[in-house]
Each structure stands twice: as C-alpha cells, then as structure tokens.
Backbone:
C-alpha cells in the first residue's frame, strides 16, 4: 500500500473556537472561563475568537486533568498555570545543570 | 484474549461502589498522571488505571466485564457464546485486546441507539498519539517518521525546528468518525535522544569546553565541535571556569529563519599525573605568583 506523507500543522497557525473545542473535548463554557482566567491567549477575529494551534495542546492537557481529577474551570486554570510554571523552572534547571561539569 | 483484572488495577474489591471506584481512580491518577509523575513506567501505569476506570465507571460496561467471570490477570480466555451475543453481537474478536473490546462496546451501544431511535448521532474519530524519538541531527535537518497502523503505515514529516517535548498535530488523520462525526487527529510527541556532547535546552545547545590551566590563563585558540563541523573560538586570557562562550546561531534551527545559540561552558581541568619537569615548573610558578585565589577568606574581595 502506497503511504502518503502527512504534514503537521505549525503551532502558529490560527484555529477557530469550534476546532479547538472538537479537538480537545473542552466545553464552550469551560473555554470561555479559561480565556477569562487568561490561561489561553486569543486573537479577536471578525468571526469571534481564534487561537494559535498550540493552544490545542494546552486544551487537551487540561481536559485530561479535568477528566482524571474532576476539575472545574478554576481548578483547570490553576493546574495548567502551575504545570507550565513547573516546566519553565525545569527548563531553567536544565540550563543551569548544563553549566556544571558532568 | 488476555484477561485483565480491572479491579486489581484500581486496588479495589469486586463489590466496590461507584463512589469507591471513582476515589480509587483519582487517588492513583494523582500519583501516576503523566503531567504529574515523570517517573519511568508512570505513563503505562496511568494507562492501565484509566482503562480500568473507563470500563468500571460505566454501569453497562462494568456489568459486561463482571459477566466475563474471574480469571487470573494475563490468562488467555474466551468470552462465552452467551456473552458474545448479548454484549458483542457476535462480532469476531480474534486479535482484539480487552480494552478495544470495551472501548468499541460504547460505540456499538450508541450505534444501537441511533438505529432504533432513527437519530443519527455523530461520533468523532479517535485521536492517535505516538512518540517519535529523534536524534539532534534529525531535528536539525527535519526528518520523516513512520507511524505503524493497522490498515497501512503512514509517514509523517517532522519539519526542522522541533524541540524536545513538542507535540505535532496532524488534523483529520486519526480514526474515522461515524454518523457524520469528524475524523480524529494524529499527535506526534517529540522526544530528543541524548547526545554524547551536546545538551539541548529549547533551541540552544550546551557543550562542555575543557581547558588546561595555561589555556585559561594565557588565552587560546581552540576548536569546538558544532552540529555542522568544527569551529575555531578564541578563549580570552584570564578565562574562568563556568564562563560561557556564545556561538550565535549554532544551536538548533528555528521553524522559520534563524537558530538557537551554542554555548561552550568553560571548565578548567588539571592533569591527574605530571612528570618531574612539570612539577618543577608548577613549583616555580607557585613561588613566583602573587595570585590570591581566596581573598574573601582573609577580608579581601573576589573582585579586588
């Protein structure tokens, strides 16, 4: 069978709310709250919000946390904020570890 | 088909209440959720408990699971013909895993409903998630990976510029939707394989740059490796261990134009064994030098 070559989407590509909701399993009201909390960045377009497609990864992550722990939107916002903060610190830690002899 | 003990996976009794199942799942999820635990095996364990929870938290699936009877985990077994006709509508399940069985059972149930009620119920296709372990060289130039799937392998282009931990999304190429539902997506999780010399941090690379004491003191021209060949760098006289030499644009490429930086981290190393002549020279140096390596111990300052 001839296989075809699939091209991933660039993280900067814009997606509409509907695609974000379908791809992540997030409910519309949850999305509104998460945007209000400032955890997802939006671009205000003519037809409503659009998002950088990397937001889909954040949304999927937060949905997995919601389902595993029964989180409400404030809990989801808090969990995602902390996780991203931890990851930024881990990155900084890796950078500092690189300055030490192995 | 191999039996899986879902109750054992969640550490609960077979008669556990719905509330107990939920509590057990949340307690274990807190320990093994891949976003929380980076320990080896945590992800596999999380998959196991999620699979168990998905079946046991749905009363219909739990009933079907209980009706399979008790077997030892890993034991080969075959559902009874009555079970097949009741829950599985006599579909073949030679190569099927227990998890597929219960996952598809949900779909079958909704399909049954849509047939009897005449309402078409769109179900989005499954997302497919895979991990690609790539070398620095591969992410530097871009590469292709093959995703093995039943029904034909597919190749996915990995563009240059991806970093460790990045997730690539290919919309609409996951499982097929049903009842007018959209197809799922493919997600490729990028993991960088360790390199003997370079340590990546985002798009930047770090390389250890060992110097002899005289190179650090007198300065030197040294060759350092980069991803695309060796480059000559100047170490200034009086260089200190831990200092970074930055080679702009010699890191990993960005998606569009440009690249991260390469940092050579200076590390002063000394020979473990030296010959007599060297010892002599070091002694002479020790006598001739007025250098104070520890001024702060005697009230001075390190920058003084």
Residues:
């Amino acid at each position: 069978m001839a296989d075809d070559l699939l091209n991933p989407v660039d993280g900067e590509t814009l997606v509409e709310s509907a695609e974000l909701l379908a791809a992540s399993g997030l409910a519309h009201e949850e999305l509104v709250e998460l945007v209000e909390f400032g955890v997802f960045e939006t671009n205000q377009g003519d037809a409503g919000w659009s998002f950088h497609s990397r937001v889909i990864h954040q949304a999927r992550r937060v949905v997995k946390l919601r389902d595993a722990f029964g989180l409400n939107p404030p809990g989801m916002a808090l969990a995602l904020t902390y996780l991203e903060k931890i990851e930024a610190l881990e990155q900084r830690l890796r950078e500092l570890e690189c300055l030490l002899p192995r | 088909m191999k039996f899986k003990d879902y109750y054992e996976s969640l550490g609960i009794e077979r008669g556990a209440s719905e509330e107990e199942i939920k509590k057990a799942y949340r307690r274990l999820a807190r320990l093994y959720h891949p976003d929380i635990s980076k320990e080896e095996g945590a992800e596999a364990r999380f998959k196991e408990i999620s699979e168990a929870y998905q079946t046991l938290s749905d009363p219909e699936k739990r009933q079907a699971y209980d009706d399979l009877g008790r077997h030892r985990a890993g034991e080969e077994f075959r559902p009874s013909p009555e079970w097949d006709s009741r829950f599985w509508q006599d579909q073949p399940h030679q190569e099927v895993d227990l998890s597929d069985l219960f996952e598809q059972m949900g779909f079958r149930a909704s399909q049954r409903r849509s047939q009897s009620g005449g309402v078409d119920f769109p179900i989005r296709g499954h997302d497919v998630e895979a991990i690609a372990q790539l070398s620095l060289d591969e992410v530097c130039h871009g590469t292709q990976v093959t995703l093995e799937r039943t029904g034909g392998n597919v190749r996915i282009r990995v563009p240059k510029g991806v970093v460790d931990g990045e997730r690539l999304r290919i919309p609409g190429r996951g499982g097929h939707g049903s009842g007018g539902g959209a197809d799922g997506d493919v997600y490729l999780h990028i993991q960088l394989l360790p390199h003997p010399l370079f340590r990546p941090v985002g798009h930047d690379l770090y390389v250890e740059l060992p110097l002899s004491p005289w190179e650090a003191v007198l300065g030197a021209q040294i060759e350092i490796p980069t991803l695309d060949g060796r480059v000559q760098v100047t170490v200034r006289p009086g260089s200190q261990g831990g200092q970074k030499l930055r080679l702009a644009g010699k890191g990993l490429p960005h998606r569009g134009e440009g690249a991260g930086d390469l940092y050579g981290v200076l590390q002063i190393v000394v020979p473990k064994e030296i010959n007599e002549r060297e010892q002599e020279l070091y002694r002479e140096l020790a006598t001739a030098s007025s250098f104070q390596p520890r001024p702060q111990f005697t009230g001075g300052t390190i920058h003084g």
